[in-house]
Protein: PAS domain S-box protein
Organism: Brevibacillus fortis
Amino acid sequence: AAKDKGKNSFHLYVPNLEQAVNDKMTIQNELNRALVRQEFLLHYQPQVSAKSGAIVGVEALIRWDHPQRGLLLPDQFISVAEETGLIVPIGEWVLRTACKQNKQWQEQGLMPLRVAVNLSARQFLKQDFTQMVAEILEQTGLAPEYLELEITESSMIDVQRATQALKELKQLGVHVAIDDFGTGYSSLYYLKEFPLNRLKIDRSFVRDMLDQPSNQAIVSTIISMAHHLQLHVIAEGVETKEELAFLQEHLCEEVQGYLFSRPLPSEDVAFYLQAQKGAS
Ligand code: C2E
Ligand code: MG
Ligand code: MG
Ligand code: MG
């Protein structure tokens, strides 16, 4: 219909907008069904000691095995899940599945490691969030120190609620990391006030680090600041040996990225852990 109004009309753009709205509604409807039909799955990306090369943790990353469109990455559906509030039940599923899986690896006799789970601000800031975490740990039998929650600086918007939640989580014994550190709006003040365990240096600083002195300065400064504040630090998106060497030299404790491994199905993680056990 927009076409009838002539080719110089702004209305020419309307069909795209309609398409976008329709796409969003389709995704929303499908997300609802995906939970019921169990179309979500988790891949796990190893987190490695920069010193020894041993796998010390894994980050759980959601995937959607869509019946028509195949395997979808979070960028293709998480924002819609957040806008519609579906991220809350989806996030609960992620948390339960990751804890259950980690417990299962331990029961297989594999070396105990942390599992890191990404949280959206909406999920983290809910009043009953800590209660839910406690219940999941209880139901799955996973000890709290083997769970790390990754929050972003956007969760700090509600300072009071965030402080409360972080205190409760600390009490529970669960670890908390700030993901994508340095890309959000949080004030350094909160680093001092909030009970945190780890900073994750965002991939954008690690990338091109070797040809951009400004990125090197940012990365080395984040590492030393973290250490002064008694926080651990992990770099994400490590793709080259040169990046690894720089991070090791600056005493970054842990690294994660394609240099070591892409996110893997759970069976492949078990295989790696088994190999690691055999080697040590
Ligand atoms: P993130 O938490 O910062 O996760 C790291 C992302 O970087 C992952 O993308 C991972 O596959 C990718 N990555 C890891 N190493 C490298 C590398 O060396 N090079 C490059 N180019 N990329 C690397 P993925 O799995 O597509 O996830 C994207 C984002 O979606 C995550 O970013 C996280 O913010 C969000 N997300 C993933 N799973 C969940 C979830 O269960 N709940 C929520 N709320 N968000 C999630
Ligand atoms: Mg993350
Ligand atoms: Mg990240
Ligand atoms: Mg990132």
DSSP finds eleven helices and nine strands in the chain. The pocket of magnesium ion (ligand 3) is lined by residues 179-180, 200, 236 (CB under 6 Å).
